[in-house]
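INFO  loader      accepted 1 record
INFO  loader      residues=119
INFO  predictor   begin
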Amino acid sequence: MEDKRKNESDETYNEDNFKESESDFSEKISQETIKQKKRRDFLIELFLFFILGVLVGVAFKTEANKKIAIGFNDYKMKIQNQDYNIGKLQKDLITKQIQEEEESQKNSTPQQDLQQEIP
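INFO  predictor   done
INFO  writer      dumping tokens
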């Protein structure tokens, strides 16, 4: 009888031990899976940010190519209306200078011209 009791107590002890070790094992597995899931989620987010960066870069580059021309591609630019016409401004300045010279010549006397040439 004592042997039966001893065997029964050993069995219960073994079952309890097994349950504890099983719960410890499941906790370790769950902790490892949680770590793996977190790492996998982090890598997925990193990959998505990389893809987003590439797409934003491509979008900026295409917009810049449309609007910015530097150097040898200037002839390909679409010429838009400008507020200032440089050719017209130059003509106006030249005509003003000519008019001022003519007025100064009309207003000056021959004596003043001689005095300016002497020094």
